[in-house]
Amino acid sequence: MSIKSVLQKITPQRVTSEVFPIDGSHDLFDTEESCIRNAVPLRQDEFAAGRAAARAALKTLGISPQSIPRAKDRCPIWPKGIVGSISHSEGFAAALVGHSADIAGIGLDIEGADALKDDLHKYILTPREIYERDARPMVAGSPRCKVTFVAKEALFKAVYPITRTFFGFQDARVEIYEDEYWDSAFVNSAFGLPSGLTICRGNWSAVGNLIIATVCVKGTQERRPN
Fold it and tell me: Does the pLDDT value for residue 84 go beyond 70?
C-alpha cells in the first residue's frame, strides 16, 4: 500500500488528510517564508512540503489556498474554524485537518521505523511500558518502543494546542494493540484536558520504513460562567 492510502486508512472520521514528497518543488507564502528563512535548505523543503500537504487537505474542505504561518511555540496557525496537524519524515510530509466544530484537536506523527536506542527508553517509556516492551518487543511487526514513541508524539500534537501546557513522554501512558489501535491516558492529572473533551482511541500503521500514528480530541469544552 502507498503512504497516502495508509494515512487515509488511519485518518480519524470527519478529518481529511494529504501527503506530499519532500522534493523542493513546493512554494510558500511570504508570511510562511519569513518563519523559515534562516533554516537550512532541507528544513525549508520539509516545511514547504508540510504546508503544501496542509493546503491540499484544506482544499477538500472547500478552503482556498492561504498562508499557514507558525506561532512562537512553532505550532501552525490554522485558518479560523480549523484544527490540524503536520508531520514529516523520511522524504514525506503529511497533514490532517478538520473543522473545529467537529474536532477539538488532531495529532499526527510520522517517524522512521527503526527501534529507539536503548539509552532513550528510560526517558520515553513509563515503567509499565518498559514491562510491556520486555514482554513483547514487537507489535504487528514493528518495534513496540518506536510505536509507543510515535503515538506519544501524536498525542502531544493533539493536546498541546488546546491546553498550551507542555508535558513529557512519561506524563502519558499509551497501550499499543496488534490491530493498529492505541489508547492513552495521562499519568499526571495536571496535564488532563478541560472538562467536556475526550481523547479518542488512536490509530497507527507501518508502511515502508515509516510508522504513522493519528489521534483526535472530541467534545465541547465547557464554558465557565462570567
Answer: yes
